[in-house]
Amino acid sequence: MNEELVKLIKDLFSEAGTNKVTFWTLTLILIVNIGVVIINCFTQFKLKTKEKSILKYGKIQDRSLEICVELYHKLEQISLMTEAVNAEELAKKVNEINAFIQHYKLFISNELRKCSQDITDYYMNIQTVPSLKDWGKEQKLFDQFSKTFNK
Questions:
Q1: Calpha distance 75→115 (Å, rounded)
Q2: pLDDT of the chain, 151 residues: tens digit per residue
Q3: Considering only Cβ atoms within 10 Å of each terminal Cβ, which end of the chain, N or C, has fewer?
Q4: Helix, strand or coil for residue 82?
């Protein structure tokens, strides 16, 4: 196939040598065709690069969503702990959550990190002074977390 194409081009250029208009027309068509191929290759490269960045962003967002949901469940678990639970166990859970936040800080936004920190601080205060426990404040903190997450 390629040999036939090369032979055809050689024949056209050898015949075009006798006629200058045909020669320049074929040369112009060849140059335009090469230019279109170069532009096409460049565009395909740019599209592939853009597609990779979009896929990467999508994967990061999916992972971030999973981590934030897991964080919410962990925070919810300490809210469901009863007063019968000793302070040591509550402190252990809060420390686990803080370690989780620190470990996945690339995937958790600053606003969610602040909301989570407010919730863990609230529970650490309850650990020291149990009379500070307020259902309304807990609900407000979790609503703030949900609102920030759903932005």
A1: 11
A2: 567 767 767 776 666 556 677 777 778 888 888 989 999 999 999 999 999 999 999 998 999 999 999 999 998 888 877 565 677 788 888 889 999 999 998 888 889 999 999 988 888 888 777 777 788 888 898 889 889 888 7
A3: N
A4: coil
Regarding pTM above 0.70, the answer is no
Handedness of CA 116, 122, 123, 127 (dihedral sign): positive
Q: In angstroms, rounded to a whole number, what is the distance separating the alpha carbons of residues 127 and 140?
A: 19
- The size of the chain, in residues, is 151
Is residue 81 within 8 A of residue 130, CB to CB? The reply is no
Taken in order 81, 83, 89, 94, is the CA torsion positive or negative?
A: positive
**Angle at the Cα of 116 from the Cα atoms of 84 and 93, rounded to 5 degrees:** 35
Separation CA 64–CA 68 (nearest Å): 6
Among residues 73, 79, 77, the alpha carbon closest in space to that of 139 is found at 79
48: amino acid identity, one letter: K
Q: What are phi and psi of 13, to 5 degrees?
A: -70, -35
